[in-house]
Write a structure and sequence with these properties.
heterodimer, A: 488 residues, mainly alpha, 72% helix, globular, B: 282 residues, Cytochrome Bc1 Complex, Chain D, domain 2, 13 helices, 46% helix
Chain lengths: 488, 282
């Protein structure tokens, strides 16, 4: 474990890219530390989800005391996924990709450490605050109210850190990943302010509902999605060693996302006492964007076409491939489930839970797994300790998540129709129990798969003997007399 | 087109602001004349169940709220109950909105309308996105305080299939008497929907599927809130309230909110039987 946090990766093996943390293009130590933090929070979040699923089977495994209340554990599950796991992993991805795409280093290494400390302190405070019952009634933003300003400050630090290299860049054209990052950073701050301050202090009831819907949706759509797409557009060409199929199509996806995504948050509250024209506009824009985002899926599969064999040996591209397939399913599902006809049945059911898992886990977390698969040997300078553990991880998680999605979707449909036909609630609970048992088992499969990854990462960093030879990236020659510490 | 400033300004700022205006601000224009009521205002009409709570748990009530007035105690209870409802993530398994479709009205009661959410306790609104348990916005008064006291301690005691967690920290050490948190969360749940002119019957309680109960007269209802007396005089109040008193009070309030069709129906209902059906929690 010590080597993971070692400030000098050069000691861990010869790697042309990752050398000392300052004075080079990419600060690999920051990448590593963000990845380690992401994995740490993800572990807690996974167990929180498992425990909560056990509560739904009437077997609460923890002591029945206030700080370990199942409801609080549920909020910890969702918040740690969004902010602890995804955001940390995306920050790691940004430290790797942005300097390479722009040719400039991030604003400041010290600022990088400040962001790492601040961001993880925010998550730790959120974690403790939720245990202590200080939640805020904003879904996916239950962060206690006193932490909210700190989160906004953290977002501003992220702007400074990553806008600096993008603005300084002398490249003639911005690669599409940078488009997504540029917009995503500003959206993160704006979305957070909109969702956490307006409904809490300024507007009430039906006036605040649309903003809550926008927040839930924008956190996924305007932070996780742009980062995820930017990541996919960066790593897939490198993994397949060929350019993306259509740059133009990727730009259609970008402008479609930018225009339609912020409009549709209200589809989380269809049927609530909000003016109907607003609800219809959310439905229409949602259907519109599902058509637009299909371009991303098409672009991925057309890029992959001709490299089918890569799936066999390259586990990283396999993660991206399954993620893209899940994304196609999600898009297809979204365009239908947002209609009022579907909403009558599925709105308050497990269908939505299945959908959320498919997007946040089945797509973006899978892509992050692909990135870790690709990056970790380069970060620690050694080849994977066990390739078979990587394969176990892939199959356990893919089958686990797929089965979880199917079981939750099926139980959601059944629940919805039973609720519509006025079945007594205990009948619904009786009907849904087998589905929930399957769900817990799939959760165990996912946790085992993730355990494989954690073991493999630790062993690769500490035990593995084979030196990793980087064939994916050109060695970056430091410029003579380059200023080793950038300025903010 | 492909420059940083263009992407930053158009995609990042402009599109987001346009969407915020369309999806966030314009829908509020139709609501801007509505007054946001504070908890203090809401607490001026404690529902019958809260008055009963003071009689049923006098010592616990006194220990929790001291010697303050009923309204003062109710204000404290609403704030703490609301706080607890958020902290324990009740709102992640119980919704607080009755939709105009999916037979929600038949199952839970009258359709939700904006006025009832326009208060301090709905900042942010607790509409919810999942119903593992029942919707709660029409829940107040459907079960007795005693039922809630038993239910919060160990829900499967009341409904064997319930997947709701236990909340033993809502009670004193004896595990029987609710403490301040327990009384407050019960007061909050009993408050939900107590502003409705009648507690809505559901199809399960009617002899046959029958939509003859009144639709809420939504237009012009804003200021027409019920007094404590009128709440006490509701048809499903305890027997101790005289029928005559109930009729008089009831007629006085009638014009404000309904066509009065339900009056006969309500009298025919035998509410004592229904509480037994209700034990399964819907």
């Amino acid at each position: 474990m010590t080597r993971i946090d070692s400030p000098s990766p050069a000691a861990a093996g010869v790697n042309p890219v990752s050398t000392s943390p300052t004075g080079r293009l990419v600060n690999t130590t920051l990448v590593k530390c963000h990845l380690v933090a992401a994995v740490f929070w993800f572990t807690i979040a996974l167990f929180a989800g498992l425990f909560y699923s056990l509560q739904l089977l009437q077997h609460w495994p923890l002591p029945k005391i206030a700080v370990l209340s199942p409801g609080r554990i549920r909020m910890i599950h969702t918040n740690l996924i969004a902010f602890g796991w995804l955001t940390n992993a995306f920050l790691a991805m940004l430290y790797w990709t942005v300097p390479r795409l722009t040719g400039k280093r991030v604003a400041h290494n010290v600022l990088g450490w400040a962001i790492w400390v601040a961001w993880n302190a925010i998550i730790l405070a959120t974690y403790i605050g939720l245990h202590l019952g200080q939640a805020q009634a904003v879904e996916w933003g239950e962060t206690p109210v006193w932490i909210d300003p700190v989160v906004v400050a953290g977002a501003i630090l992220v702007w400074i850190q990553f806008y600096t290299p993008i603005v300084r860049s002398t490249e003639k054209a911005m690669y599409v990943s940078l488009w997504y990052f540029t917009a995503g950073f500003i959206w993160l701050g704006l979305t957070y302010i909109m969702g956490n301050f307006f409904p809490e202090y300024l507007v009430a009831g039906s006036a605040a509902g649309p903003l809550l819907g926008l927040y839930i949706h924008d956190l996924v759509g305007l932070w996780v999605t742009p980062m995820g797409w930017g990541m996919m557009y960066f790593f897939v060409p490198i993994l397949l060693k060929k350019p993306i199929w259509s740059h133009a199509l990727s730009l259609v996806g970008f402008w479609g996302l930018a225009f339609f995504y912020p409009l549709q948050g209200l589809h989380h509250f269809l049927g609530s006492p909000v003016p109907m024209f607003a609800q219809y506009s959310a439905v229409v824009s949602t259907i519109a964007i599902e058509i637009v985002v299909t371009t991303v899926v098409i672009n991925f599969f057309m890029t992959w076409r001709g490299s089918e064999g890569a799936l066999k040996n390259n586990i990283a591209i396999r993660w991206f491939w399954v993620g893209a397939l899940n994304y196609a399913i999600t898009c297809f599902q979204c365009a239908f489930q947002v209609t009022l006809t579907f909403q009558q049945v599925i709105h308050f059911t497990d269908w939505v839970v299945g959908h959320a898992h498919l997007v946040m886990f089945g797509v973006f977390s899978f892509w992050i797994f692909g990135m870790i698969e690709h990056l970790w040997p380069k970060l620690v300078g050694r080849d994977w300790w066990s390739v078979s553990l990587n394969r176990w991880q892939f199959w356990l998680i893919t089958i686990g998540l797929g089965a979880m999605f199917l079981t939750l979707t099926a139980s959601g449909i059944a629940e919805g129709f039973m609720a519509m036909q006025l079945s007594p609630r205990e009948s619904i609970l009786e009907m849904v129990r087998p589905f929930w048992i399957v769900r817990t088992i799939t959760g165990l499969a996912i946790i085992s798969g993730f355990g494989c990854l954690v073991v493999n990462m630790v062993m690769t960093a500490c035990v593995a003997k084979t030196k990793h030879i980087d064939v994916d990236y050109e060695p970056y020659e430091p410029i003579e007399n380059e200023v080793t510490v950038g300025t903010v | 087109m492909e420059r940083f400033s263009f992407i930053f300004l158009v995609a990042g700022l402009l599109f987001f602001s346009v969407a915020f205006a369309i999806a966030g601000w314009i829908p509020t224009l139709s609501l801007q004349d509505m007054e946001v009521r504070t908890v203090e205002q809401l607490a001026q009409q404690p529902p019958l169940d809260f008055i009963e709570m003071r009689e049923e748990y006098p010592e616990a009530f006194k220990k929790a709220f001291g010697d303050t007035s009923l309204e003062g105690a109710f204000e404290q209870a609403l704030r703490l109950g609301h706080r607890t409802y958020i902290a324990e993530a009740c709102w992640h398994c119980h919704s607080q909105q009755v939709r105009p479709w999916g037979n929600d009205e038949a199952r839970y009661g009258a359709l939700s309308y904006p006025e009832e959410y326009h208060n301090e306790l709905n900042m942010p609104p607790l509409w919810g996105t999942r119903r593992i348990g029942p919707d709660l916005i029409r829940r107040g008064g459907r079960q007795s305080n005693d039922w809630h006291v038993a239910h919060f301690y160990h829900p499967p005691d009341v409904n064997p299939r319930s997947v709701m967690p236990d909340y033993p920290w809502f009670y004193e050490k004896d595990g029987i008497t609710p403490n301040k948190i327990g009384l407050s969360i019960i007061a909050y749940v009993q408050w939900l929907g107590s502003w409705q002119p009648t507690r809505q019957e559901t199809i399960h309680q009617l002899p046959a599927i029958d939509r003859s109960y009144p639709e809420p007269n939504i237009i012009g209802r804003g200021k027409n809130t019920l007094s404590v007396e009128a709440v006490e005089a509701q048809p499903d109040a305890d027997d101790e309230y005289e029928d005559d008193e109930y009729d008089d009070e009831y007629d006085d309030e009638e014009d404000g909110y309904g066509d009065g069709d339900y009056e006969d129906e309500s009298e025919d209902e035998d509410y004592s039987d229904e509480t037994e059906d209700d034990e399964y929690g819907y």
